[in-house]
Every structure is written in structure tokens, then in C-alpha cells.
Amino acid sequence: MSEKTNEKDSDLMEKIVSLCKRRGFVFQGSEIYGGLAGTWDYGPYGAELAHNIKELWWKHFVTEQENIFGISTPTLVPEAVWKASGHLSGFSDPMIECKKCHHRFRADHLEDKKKCPDCGGELGGEKAFNLMFPVGVGSSGDGVAYLRGEIAPGMFLNFKNVIDSMHPDLPFGLAQIGKAYRNEIAPRDFLFRVREFDLMEFEYFIREADWEKYFEYWRGEMWKWIERVGINKDMVHELEVSKEDRAFYSKRTIDFEFDYPFGKKELYGLAYRTDHDLKSHSAGSGVDLTFFDEETKDRFFPHVVEPSFGNGRTMLAVLVSAYKEDMMGDESRVYLAFNPKIAPVKIAVFPLLKNKPELVEKAREIYKQLKKEFGAVVFDDNGNIGKRYRRQDEIGTPWCVTVDFETIEKDAGVTMRDRDSGKQKRMQLPEIISFIKSQFS
Ligand code: GAP
Asked: What span, in angstroms and rounded, lies between the C-alpha atoms of 101 and 425?
């Protein structure tokens, strides 16, 4: 069996986008109306994949941690919050417009800032373009709010509520997963740069003196996550972000960059936000957001370390890491070597032949049992068995279970096929159940 490496395949992006559409992972947003740039719809397998990544992230960074609390806050946030946090003045990208065709570009993405890459016309001067989406709220529409550009403010706005209701000591974290919206000047590269996306992140509240210790700790946990979710860690590289390129609120940022087929670009961020946010929201709201240390009797603004993860970029990095082509016998195949924990379908159950009722009946019985145990199990009796295996390989199903004549005639169990090796093993059902359970523990 020969395997091509991902990095050398220049058509890889096209192949992934096409597989995602063909097999029900990702479609253009509002496609039948011509599409809306920077939005993507997730089909049945895409929705499942995104959900499984979120669930694993929550496990890794919330439920398996001792002192991180999960919260969930609205995407509609009033203007006063963004004024206080600095987003209204500082959450922008540099933009350049062509004087001739009026196309707009991210200035920092242009090599030649004088000549339009689309029509060759003269480019205008650089301007700061704010990425926030304003919305009118209420029947008159004059209550001004913004769709959140980041989800972090939800954590800062609830700092006092959580202190008062949960009484945590420092350090502790507040985490959430939810939509963020950015009016990107030039959305591009599939799920990489979009206008609406799910963020998974937490604010870790600490004493100022401890910031370097926790920055290092979460840096290590981010690497563990990268491995756990199934991103090829050889394709991830850290970048120390320079002062000029850091977000306005950060004193230190490390970007975790990934080798996407279109270049090495940001996957995740780790930022030291100092006490910028709690201080700003204290001043903006008039509510005291300091922490009172019962032992030392000190009152102070905690500092914050923030690991931040885009769900869509995780999906893309997982797809790129998992996409494989090889030869099986004399046939080529495509498969997605997903970590079983995030695979949209865990097991597919087949009767060897569709026109043998005894095989179909037994396969349906096994399908029901496995579905009860593992949830994401499918039944397929359509087409020849080789085609059914290929269909499951292409969506990354780790195991296929086939009921054949030996199952019925000799009570010899079923065959279980492993996606990556293509090898089959005859096993009894209880053995299969305990093997698969062991893969999820
Ligand atoms: N609270 C910190 C924050 O929002 P960020 O670097 O602006 O930091 C965090 O965004 C993460 O969100 C990024 O590392 C990336 O994974 C994802 N992300 C940012 N902008 C995105 C976009 N336009 N489309 C898709 N994902 C995006």
C-alpha cells in the first residue's frame, strides 16, 4: 500500500473542498440564492464533525480541568461593551481600495500596495476598517448593539456573577463555545477566513506575578489538544507575534500556525491579555470587577491568559491532516484518517448481499445493538460491498462490520474492517463492542 504525503499535493485544497460538498460536509452558505461570501453551511457529516470537535474541546479544557467553568452568553452585545473594551476603535484591519474597480483588499495581504491585483488600477491609501457588525435592536431599531467580534467579553462581563455564585479562588477560568462575527474585508480559503464562525476559548484569571507560568502551562496543553483532536503536529509551528502585529489588548501572543495547502497561516492563538479587559469593563460599567483575596486581604484586578481556537480552522486542519490517498489492491481510494472520537460516523453495518433477507435481518439486528451503544452508526446495503467500504473510507468511518453467510450458518461472528489498513478480522459482537469502547476511553 503506498501513501502520498499531504504537503506535496498542490491540488489538495480543491480535493478537500470537493469531497466536503460531494459527501455532505460543507456547502456554500445560502447557495441556492447565489451564496453569501464568508459563510458556509454544514451538512450532516460536517455538523457532526464540528459538534464532535466542540465536545472533545469541552472535555479537554473544561470538564477534565479542576477550575474551569463553562458559560454561554448571547451573540448580541450592546455598544457600551465594545466602547469600553476598545473594539469600536481598535478591532480593525488595514484596508486599501482600488480607485478604478473599487475592489477592496487587506493592506497587509498585498505585496504591491500601489497596483490593484485585480485590474491593475491605482490603489488608494490605507484605512482602518472596523470588523464589527452593527445591529439595530428593538422595534424602532435604534438600540445599538453589535454581533460579537469575539466571545471573550461574555467571560469578562460574567466575572463578578461567577465569583458571587461559585466563589472560586485564583486561578480559575471561564470558557465558552459560540459564534463570533467579523466583517472580513476579503473572506477566503474555504473555512479559513469567514465572516461567521464558532470560537472555542477561555479566559484564565491569575495573579499578575504568575502570568508566565500559566502562559507556559496552557501552551503545553494546546499542543496536547492538537495531538488529541488529530491535527498532524509536524504541520503546526509556533510564531511569536511581534508587538506591531499583536491585538491591541495583548502584551504577548503566540500564534500556532498550520501548513494549510494555501500556506502557513494562523490556526490558534495564545494571548496574555493582562488586566486590560476587567479594568476597562469596570470603568465602562461602573461595577467593581476586582478580586478580593481572603488570605492577604488584597483587592486587585486579576490578569488573564487566553487560549483561543476557531472551530472551522480546526475542522480544516483536521481534514488536511486526515486526507489520504492510497492503493488498495489495484484500486485507488481516498480516506479520511480521523481520530475515531471526532469521526462523524463511528461504525457502518452491512449485509454482504442485499437480496438475502436472512443477512439483511441479522445485519439490522446488529446495527440496532451497535447504535444503542455508540449512537453514530449507519446501515448500508446499497451497491457492492467494495463500493460501500470506499464510501465509508471517504467520510472517515473507522470501522465497518459485515454480516456474511458464515455469520448465519456457522455462528462465526461478523467481519470488522479497519479503515486505515483495510484489514478484516472475524469477531463476535461483544468483542467488537468492548474493542470499540476501549478506543473511546
Ligand atoms: N479572543 C481572542 C480572539 O478572538 P483571534 O486571534 O482574533 O483571537 C481566535 O481569533 C481564533 O479564531 C483564531 O486563532 C482562529 O482560529 C479563529 N478565527 C479568527 N478569525 C477568523 C475568521 N475570520 N474565520 C475563521 N476563523 C477565525
From this structure: 62
